[in-house]
């Protein structure tokens, strides 16, 4: 059995004392344990007070996003042996994402991160007239093909974390994706408001085209491609 | 110190939804759409509604398209009845199947990104157990959004509620229901982020708090699915129904338990034991790997039980192998790419050249809070609790009986969510005010007790023992001796839990405090499962008793379990199964009698 002796340096925050510090945990772990398993192991064996977030733990919900050695990723998808290979070390620094205030330790106030999404109205604002009782709108599969990948976004905010512009005025890549999808979706009739939002002060022109969003997306979405389409007005 | 457990504020609303997953939000959206301005508060235990367990559902939604000349609602009803092993309620089955297509259209018209056929219509695919002409041939009945149908429902429900002005309270759990004389007035909620308690009073309260998969060590369920809703209603003196009806998927990926879809076996994957011998022919000589879910799950468990399993050293879980190495590259690339990527992601191996570890994984709780066909919660005497509704996996109406068909779970969320919305709209027209005279009586003592304990035990370790014993003794195989052993262990764990000291005194984002509360819920739900499983001396659907391996129709009823003040002591009751389709003696009624579940 292969095991690794790991050092985790976890950024902690205690809201009761308004105090931040870095705490070091040593643990031995098998090769295919995931980082969420490591955090649970710390809770069960060393320190039940360490707070961290997760939900589905298989890459479908985006709750466990955090920065590990500086890279925003999903802790449920990072296996010990892959982490050691990828980062070339057995010492890892775990930090909460910076897209919302920290509640405690690695838990951020996700609700506040979502304010960015709420602003772009992640629903159909003005739906096309219903095609008749019991009928669906016809959506050409070729047209769907153009934006379907963007609908895989789980709002883990890894892209917004990595984006070099989104810590200022930019609403961020995932919020842009949500509105671009509805611009490409024929069932949305309210295109004008969407375009205004897209080309607003907080919109796509804040993007510096670093492509960091595409690089870190756990769902493999080429986010930058969609933002480029939006910049070109090519919906 | 007692200050921490004071109610900080009281909020009044029209409708309180406990759990903002697919079911809760479909219900809320219906009310907001038809009664704009209704004040709805939705609590979500997770950090945001989009993170709910609904979002992980992959397969699809079963619904008969009225334009389809080859399919009919009656076939869907029959499949559901047969799949349930004659324990679904036929009034509920009829209601859900008949309203299914309308709800698909509701989702589509509001922007869900369903997969399409070349004409641009909704694509359909087949799913296990769904047939036309009463079992004659597979039915193309499931509409889907690629392999993320649940996410589509979640995104649509969340978007519609956001659009129409719902008020979400995030990372918040209901800790006490306000019930008196069969009337529910709302709940006391604990807000995890700031560690405070609020009282929420509502004209209607809807439980939509999801499943209980964390009772078991290997599960496909989210970390938050700790059976809170079931525990809370039992604490309020109400029963749960059919808690022993728990479904296990045969092939969960070791160790997280993620689903490795049926497709792996249908494309030719072979199950092998630790000696790499194929073993399915021993259990199902003809069907082998293609035998039904529960049979395959029992075959795998048998191999493991008889010492032919393999121990995964990292996760400390026994498993068998599924062999995909012989399949052509094209199958790997075209037919099973997602599952192949799961093995790469979570086990770091290549299914083209390596054996893949799988074992049965807890998947779904058919049992839950008993309701009628309108989602109104019933007490042990089957009287309605005024103002209280339940929907989704936490509820049992019962659409699934003792075994759920694939693609029927998320269908239940959207149809029953809508029907309960209808019912509540009627109620809101009658009720002009909330009741504020029902005082809470339990939560303060409970939470104070958590902080007062002084022993040096450990919540996480107690939970791990609970999950291990439930997996070992009360999952795929059950025997009287095994269940009694589990009950004894649960009693010991309850004692240990009561004495366990919390490490930190703060209530704000105190994860250990929430886990302590969840542990009480897991203990209560586990005990209900055990007691009902002990009582049911037969095998039906997903409930398999090694000592009573066949179905005995003297048990063709729903089990009701109510708790008492003494942990482990329960009161059992029964509810008859609704057989109105059979009783109406209409066309094909004989298909809805006590038929065999044989495929």
- Using only C-alpha atoms, the radius of gyration of chain B works out to 23 Å
Give unreliable regions of chain A as ranges: none
Q: Care to count the β-strands of chain A?
A: 7
Count up the helices of chain B.
Answer: 16
Could you report the average pLDDT of chain B, rounded to the nearest whole number? 95
Largest sheet of chain A: 5 strands, mixed
Cross-sheet strand order for the largest sheet of chain A: 2-1-5-3-4
Please name the CATH architecture of the largest domain in chain B. Answer: 3-Layer(bba) Sandwich
Main sheet makeup of chain B: 8 strands, mixed
Residue share in β-strands of chain A: 15-25%
CATH class of the largest domain in chain B: Alpha Beta
The CA-CA distance between the termini of chain A, in Å, is: 53 Å
Walkthrough of the structure:
The complex is a heterodimer of chains A (235) and B (599). Chain A has 235 residues and is of the alpha+beta class. Chain A has two domains: 3-108, Roll (Ubiquitin-like (UB roll)); 114-232, Fumarate Reductase Iron-sulfur Protein, Chain B, domain 2, CATH 1.10.1060.10. Chain A is built from ten helices and seven strands. In chain A, the strands form two sheets. In chain A, strands 2-1-5-3-4 form a five-stranded mixed sheet. The longest helix of chain A has 12 residues, at 173-184. The radius of gyration of chain A is 20 Å and the shape is elongated. Chain B is of the alpha+beta class. Chain B has helices at residues 22-34, 73-83, 90-109, 149-163, 228-235, 263-266, 280-283, 293-308, 329-335, 337-347, 409-430, 443-452, 459-473, 480-499, 511-535, 580-583, and strands at 7-18, 40-43, 61-62, 131-132, 137-138, 142-143, 167-169, 172-180, 183-191, 196-207, 240-241, 246-253, 270-272, 310-312, 317-323, 356-365, 369-370, 376-378, 384-390, 395-396, 557-563, 570-576. In chain B, strands 1, 2, 7, 8, 9, 10, 18 and 19 form an eight-stranded mixed sheet that branches. The mean pLDDT of chain B is 95. Chains A and B meet through helix 1 of A and helix 3, helix 4, helix 10, helix 13 and helix 15 of B.
């Amino acid at each position: 059995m292969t095991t690794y002796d790991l050092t985790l340096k976890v950024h902690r925050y205690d809201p009761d004392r308004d105090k931040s510090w870095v705490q070091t945990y040593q643990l031995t772990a098998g090769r295919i344990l995931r980082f969420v398993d490591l955090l649970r192991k710390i809770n069960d064996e060393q320190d039940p007070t360490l707070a961290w977030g997760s939900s589905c733990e298989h890459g479908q919900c985006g709750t466990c996003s955090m920065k590990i050695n500086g890279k925003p990723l999903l802790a449920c998808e990072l296996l010990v042996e892959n982490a050691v290979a990828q980062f070339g070390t057995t010492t890892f620094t775990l930090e909460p994402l910076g897209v919302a205030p920290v509640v405690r330790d690695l838990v951020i106030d996700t609700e506040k991160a979502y304010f960015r999404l709420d602003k772009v109205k992640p629903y159909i604002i003005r739906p096309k007239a219903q095609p008749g009782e019991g009928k669906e709108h016809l959506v050409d599969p070729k047209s769907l093909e153009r934006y379907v990948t963007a609908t895989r976004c789980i709002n883990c905010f890894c892209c917004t974390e990595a984006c070099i512009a989104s810590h200022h005025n930019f609403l961020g890549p995932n919020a842009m994706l949500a509105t671009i999808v509805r611009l490409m979706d024929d069932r949305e009739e309210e295109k004008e408001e969407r375009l205004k939002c897209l080309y607003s002060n907080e919109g796509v022109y804040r993007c510096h085209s670093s492509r960091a969003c595409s690089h870190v997306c756990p769902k493999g979405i080429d986010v930058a491609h969609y933002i480029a389409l939006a910049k070109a007005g090519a919906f | 110190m007692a200050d921490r457990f004071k109610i900080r504020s009281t909020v009044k609303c029209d409708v309180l939804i406990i759990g903002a997953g697919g079911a809760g939000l479909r219900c809320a959206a219906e009310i907001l759409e038809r009664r704009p301005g209704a004040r709805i508060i939705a609590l979500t235990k997770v950090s945001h509604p989009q993170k709910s367990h609904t979002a992980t559902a992959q397969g699809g939604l079963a619904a008969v398209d009225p334009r389809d000349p080859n399919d009919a609602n009656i076939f869907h009803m029959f499949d559901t009845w047969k799949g349930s092993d004659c324990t679904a309620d036929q009034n509920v089955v009829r209601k859900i199947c008949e309203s299914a297509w309308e709800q698909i259209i509701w989702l589509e018209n509001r922007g869900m990104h369903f997969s399409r056929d070349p004409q641009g219509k909704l694509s359909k695919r087949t799913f296990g157990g769904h047939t036309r002409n009463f079992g004659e041939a597979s039915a193309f009945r499931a509409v889907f959004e690629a392999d993320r149908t649940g996410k589509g429902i979640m995104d649509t429900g969340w978007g519609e509620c956001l659009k129409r002005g719902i008020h979400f309270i995030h990372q918040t759990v209901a800790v006490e229901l306000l019930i008196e004389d069969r009337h529910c007035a709302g709940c006391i909620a604990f807000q995890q982020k700031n560690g405070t308690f609020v009282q929420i009073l509502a004209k209607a309260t809807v439980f939509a708090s999801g499943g209980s998969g964390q009772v078991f060590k290997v599960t496909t369920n989210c970390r938050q699915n700790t059976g809170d809703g079931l525990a809370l209603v039992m604490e309020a003196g109400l029963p749960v129904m059919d808690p022993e009806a728990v479904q296990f998927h045969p092939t969960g990926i070791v160790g997280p338990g993620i689903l490795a879809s049926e497709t792996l076996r249908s494309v030719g994957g072979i199950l092998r034991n630790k000696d790499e011998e194929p073993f399915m022919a021993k259990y199902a000589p003809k069907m082998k790997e293609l035998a039904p879910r529960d049979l395959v799950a029992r075959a795998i468990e048998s191999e493991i039980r008889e010492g032919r399993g393999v121990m995964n050293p990292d996760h400390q879980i026994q498993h068998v192998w599924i062999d995909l190495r012989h399949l052509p590259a094209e199958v790997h690339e075209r037919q099973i790419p997602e599952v192949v990527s799961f093995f790469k992601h979570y086990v770091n191996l290549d299914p083209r050249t390596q054996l893949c570890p799988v074992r049965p994984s807890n998947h779904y709780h058919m049992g839950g809070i008993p309701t009628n066909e309108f989602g109104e919660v019933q007490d042990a005497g089957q009287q309605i609790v005024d103002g209280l509704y339940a929907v989704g996996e936490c509820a049992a109406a019962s659409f699934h009986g003792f075994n759920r068909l694939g693609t029927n779970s998320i269908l239940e969320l959207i149809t029953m969510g809508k029907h309960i919305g209808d019912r509540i709209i009627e109620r809101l027209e009658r009720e002009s005010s909330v009741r504020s005279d029902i005082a809470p009586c339990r939560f303060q003592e409970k939470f104070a007790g958590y902080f007062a304990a002084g022993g040096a035990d450990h919540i996480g370790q107690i939970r791990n023992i609970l999950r291990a014993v439930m997996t070992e003794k009360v999952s795929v195989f059950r025997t009287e001796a095994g269940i009694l052993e589990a009950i004894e262990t649960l009693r010991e764990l309850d004692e240990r839990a009561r004495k366990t000291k919390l490490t930190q005194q703060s209530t704000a984002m105190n994860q250990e405090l929430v886990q302590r509360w969840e542990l009480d819920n897991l203990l209560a739900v586990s005990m209900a499962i055990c007691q009902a499983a002990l009582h049911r001396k037969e095998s039906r659907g997903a409930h398999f008793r090694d000592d009573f391996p066949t179905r005995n129709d003297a048990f063709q009823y729903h089990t009701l379990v109510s708790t008492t003040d003494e942990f482990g002591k329960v009161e059992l009751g029964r509810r008859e199964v609704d057989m109105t389709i059979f009783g109406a003696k209409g066309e094909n009624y004989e298909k809805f009698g006590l038929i065999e579940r044989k495929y």
